[in-house]
Amino acid sequence: MVEPCARVQHVARSIHPNWIWRRARAALETEHNQSVRPMSILKPFGTELSVAVFGAGGGIGGALVDVLQSETSVERIYALSHNELEGLGKKSTGIEFDMLDEASIVKAAAVISKDGPLHLAIVATGFLHNNTVGPEKRMKDLGGDNMEHLFRINTVGPAIIAKHILPLFAKDRQSLFAALSARVGSISDNKLGGWHSYRASKAALNMVIRTLSIEMAYRNPRSICVALHPGTVDTQLSGPFQGNLSFQKVFTPDHSATRLLEVVAGLTPKSTGGFFAWDGQQIPY
Ligand SMILES: NC(=O)c1ccc[n+]([C@@H]2O[C@H](COP(=O)([O-])OP(=O)(O)OC[C@H]3O[C@@H](n4cnc5c(N)ncnc54)[C@H](OP(=O)(O)O)[C@@H]3O)[C@@H](O)[C@H]2O)c1
Q: N or C end of the chain, less CB within 10 A?
């Protein structure tokens, strides 16, 4: 794949570290992807679907919006983001929100509810590191404020989104609420240690999803509520940690988004409460 020159990369990252860079890269992939992309991955959910993506300014969230844009079964996309988004497609409505501000989520839900019921929602927000803090290598690196911040973004945020978004779901057909978790949040899979706060916040998210799935099933037996692992994806979040992974092991956001939608399309209400990877494999909690 041809990469934009260093100056373009620098300018794109300085305007917005994630969104513009990702769009530049995605544009280079569009022709290839359109030739291989099925007409409608989400067909099992029916037609005229309304879909909400939280974290649409992120690497994977933005790619999900792009893929959904080309889905024939999708009529409306709500692209919810921390910052204002530009260059959205025709079907998309951009809505700003902050995971740390419940009132902004209430406001976003009110905008969505005006257009009728929602059928799918995917929460693709998340936090691992910034310029000052990174994942802990050992227990002496633990800091209460940092741990609390990760829980606020990775666990509490998706739960509060569910609180205000699930009541908007159609009750009479198959629906889906999914949150992007991470394989490192699997307790039984933890053989390496480290990354205490991120692992714990994602393990707690998995429990939130499991608990929501039970309540959702009472309301609509055809509902599906799952946690998803997107693979290792080339985004701002994973950038410093891709280490020695080969190019093939690090997905583009577009590839991960497409695989995740394929996984979602293959789920049934029997799958509700589960944790699934990009390849459809169920991950044990
Ligand atoms: N990339 C990977 O290899 C990988 C692997 C496993 C799991 N995941 C999970 O996949 C999800 C998406 O990750 P990604 O790689 O796409 O990361 P990303 O590009 O950093 O996207 C994360 C998004 O979350 C948003 N966000 C953070 N705090 C927010 C807040 N307070 N309010 C609203 N939005 C907020 C960010 O917006 P701002 O930047 O504007 O704050 C950003 O758009 C995360 O849950 C991550 O844990 C990723």
A: N
CATH number, domain containing residue 190: 3.40.50.720
In a 3-state reduction of DSSP, which class is residue 75?
strand
Protein residue closest via CA to atom 10 of ligand 1: 180
Give domain status of residue 56, yes or no.
yes
pLDDT at 249: 83
C-alpha 39/C-alpha 89 separation (Å) is 17
**Ligand 1 pocket test target in 180, 183, 245, 275 with most atoms within 8 Å of CB:** 180
Index of the ligand 1 atom closest to the CA of residue 251: 3
Verify whether ligand 1 is closer than 6 Å to residue 186 (CB atom): no
Distance CA 164, CA 102 (A): 9
* Mean predicted confidence (pLDDT) in 64-75: 96
How many residues would you count in the chain? 285
Could you give the number of structural domains in the chain? 1
Q: Which atom of ligand 1 is least distant from the CA of 179?
A: 45
Does residue 155 lie within any of the structural domains? yes
Is 107 part of any domain?
yes
